[in-house]
Write a structure and sequence with these properties.
heterodimer, A: 193 residues, alpha/beta, Aconitase, domain 4, 7-stranded mixed beta sheet, 9 helices, 7 strands, B: 462 residues, Aconitase, domain 3, Aconitase, Domain 2, 3 domains, 5-stranded parallel beta sheet, 19 strands, 17% strand, globular
């Protein structure tokens, strides 16, 4: 599977203040019985977006303005818990291309990078500014690995694994690269047993 | 140069070393799969006309979406038709690719992290992955074992490798003497409360010290299982005679066992090896632990009071749990008890629960779900099921069940569930359900009294 290349994203932010948003909250378990990836954007953050009888809540995620946001800003330690890739599938299907926090859980970060969703861990002051200013238009530049805040808020460097960055910018997945390692894998297997 | 256990096992699996521009190509010895996180990976294979490179290094079972009850006509009450389709999809995919699968008819079917060790497939020095974050469980055998997403499940199916950078290492030392009635679950909940729910992010953990050396394999698996609840993808314990005795005679145990043990004995952190971080905990400081909030780091000793909320997030957690700062956690009314999950569904856990429930009656709904069909049979051979049912608890078929509630085993909104599982996230056991994580002992004691109860107090004069 490939995805749309990601280089520069300029978008208003959608902010979820809570810390430790786990992948159960991003994609509740009852939506994990799907055997495809299609349509998971409808279920992302279902417990925030739908009431007990399935009615829409007034959460920002349900607003037109929210749906136009490509950048999600969330509290510390976003994406902890379950390894379900349904979480980034849901986020990208909803329309997010970037998620920013002061800490992002390992498995979620790895899964995001494989689906065209850029996880950015940013320093605390910039993170706090973003939490305090929901809906501001910010720019994420993957070419320079910079987050630019509006109103002379300055720019902040972030780091991304170089290979993941290359894949994101080219819209490539890793399978092609691993298949290209076939000779090395065969040689390893002969040695390793 | 002295090496850590992690360094040694890592080095054994490098196909292509990492560079500034590329992560390492890391070889996978054992790939465990289940119905929830594999279907889209098999689809990805099909789209590229790829095959499974090493079906002989792949093992499958069904556990997450499977009902834990059987209808009177012998049929299985799946929560939805989609859940049944998901199980059928797994069975169809593994049949098509020649992967050994432990389905309904297998005596080893069960939670994937219970099954691997039971079959002897989990061994020291291995690299093990599964599309499930609790794959860290297998680290109890001195393996590097961690959860991956579905895209990487596809990579492993097709190439038996993944791309990965080496994580940092953290040693967690627990030495001293545990108090009477302190369980492995209490030890790991104490550790997570100490280092924090994100404290292990970016690290591979090694649990070190006499407390872990003195544990059974069941106990070590409980500890390693919850490494991910501190943010660490994997947690390991150096293999020893306890490990070797556990694996001996199991289906996949190495044929030349003496030679295998000889090799495994080298899998220990060398004296002088340097970890990126070290944490030291005194065994004497650990008490029976329960959680009071909405992530596993929010744990306190059962005789303690609920702490003051330091942040808005902490207050939101207390509001969700309907608990107040300053109140005692013991004595809080409970509505249900769940004993099971890849954390606490093994024979040690069931024996501990049975020891408390023997001759007693549960006063709230109590669901006991063994980790595998084999554990179910072993427990029944020991008469544990008779103790449970005589006490009024429900004895179910093996599976993940109420740990994540995917199969329909959930609480009703507002329920407080004392649960031996691993996550107390909001809504994990059903919308509005409040989860309190605890040991099997604490869960069983609470089942008897109907309130959160220190198991050490059961049997004392009232």
């Amino acid at each position: 599977m490939s995805f749309k290349p990601l280089t520069i994203i300029t978008s208003k932010t959608l902010v979820l203040q809570a810390a430790n948003i786990d992948t159960d909250q991003i994609m509740p378990a009852k939506f994990l019985s799907m055997t495809t990836k299609a349509g998971l954007g409808e279920h992302v953050f279902a417990n925030l977006r739908y009431g007990p009888d399935g009615e829409l809540t007034d959460h920002t995620l349900n607003s037109e303005a929210g749906k136009a946001c490509e950048i999600l800003v969330a509290g510390h330690n976003f994406g902890c818990g379950s390894s379900r890739e349904h979480a980034p599938w849901g986020l990208t299907d909803y329309g997010f291309r970037v998620v920013i926090s002061s800490e992002i859980a390992d498995i979620f970060r790895s899964n995001s990078l494989k689906n065209g969703l850029l996880p950015i861990v940013i320093e605390k002051s910039a993170h706090q500014w973003l939490l305090d200013h929901p809906g501001e238009e910010v720019t994420v530049d993957l070419k320079t690995c910079e987050l630019r805040l509006p109103k002379n808020g300055g720019s902040y460097k972030f780091s991304v694994d170089s290979f993941s960055r290359h894949c994101l910018m080219e819209g490539l997945d890793e399978m092609g690269y691993l298949l290209g390692q076939d000779a090395a894998i065969t040689e390893f297997e002969a040695r390793h047993g | 140069m002295p090496k850590t256990l992690f360094d040694k096992v890592w080095a054994r699996h490098i196909v292509t070393p990492e560079t500034a521009t590329h992560p390492a190509v890391f070889y996978i010895d054992l790939h465990l799969i289940h119905e929830v996180t594999s279907p889209q990976a098999f689809t990805a294979l099909k789209e590229r006309s790829l095959t499974v490179r090493r079906p002989d290094r792949t093992l499958a079972t069904i556990d997450h979406s499977t009902p834990t009850k059987i209808n009177s006509d012998g049929s299985r009450p799946y929560v939805t038709a989609q859940a049944e389709r998901q199980v059928q999809t797994l069975l169809g995919n593994t049949r098509a690719h020649g992967i050994e699968t432990h389905g309904w008819e297998s005596e080893n079917r069960g939670i994937v992290h219970v099954m691997g060790p039971e079959l002897g497939a989990t061994q020291p020095g291995m690299s093990i992955v599964c599309g499930d974050s609790h794959t860290s469980t297998h680290g109890a055998f001195g393996a590097i074992a961690f959860g991956i997403g579905t895209t990487q499940v596809g990579h492993v199916l097709a190439t038996q490798t993944i791309l990965m950078r080496k994580p940092k290492t953290m040693a967690i030392h627990v030495n001293g003497e545990l108090g009477a009635g302190i369980t492995p679950k209490d030890v790991i909940l104490h550790i997570i409360a100490e280092i924090g729910v994100g404290g292990g992010t970016g690290y591979a953990l090694e649990y070190r010290g006499n407390v872990f050396e003195d544990m059974s394999m069941d106990g070590r698996m409980t500890v390693c299982n919850m490494s991910i609840e501190a943010g660490a993808r994997c947690g390991m314990i150096a293999p020893d005679e306890v490990t070797f005795n556990y694996i001996k005679g199991r289906k996949f145990a190495p044929k030349d066992y003496a030679a295998a043990c000889e090799d495994w004995r080298s899998l220990r952190t060398d004296n002088g090896a340097v970890f990126d971080k070290e944490v030291r905990i005194k065994a004497e400081d650990i008490k029976p632990m329960v959680t009071y909030g909405t992530h596993p780091g929010m744990g306190i000793a059962i005789d303690n009071f609920i702490p003051k909320a330091g942040t808005k997030a902490d207050q939101a957690a207390l509001d969700y749990m309907r608990l107040s700062s300053g109140a005692a956690i013991a004595g809080t009314r409970a509505d249900k008890v769940f004993i099971g999950s890849c954390t606490n569904s093994r024979l040690d856990d069931l024996r501990a629960a049975a020891a408390l429930l023997k001759g007693q009656t549960v006063t709230i709904e109590t669901i006991i779900v063994p980790g595998s069909a084999l554990i179910k049979a072993q427990a029944e051979a020991e008469g544990l099921d008779a103790i449970f049912t005589a006490a009024g608890a429900q004895w179910r078929e093996a599976g993940c069940s109420m740990c994540l509630g995917m199969n329909g085993d959930i609480g009703t909104p507002g329920d407080l569930v004392v649960s031996t599982s691993n996550r107390n996230f909001m809504g994990r056991q059903g919308p509005g359900v409040r989860t309190v994580l605890a040991s099997p002992e604490t869960a069983a004691a609470s089942a008897i009294t109907g309130v959160i109860t220190d198991p050490r107090k059961i049997g004392e004069a009232a």
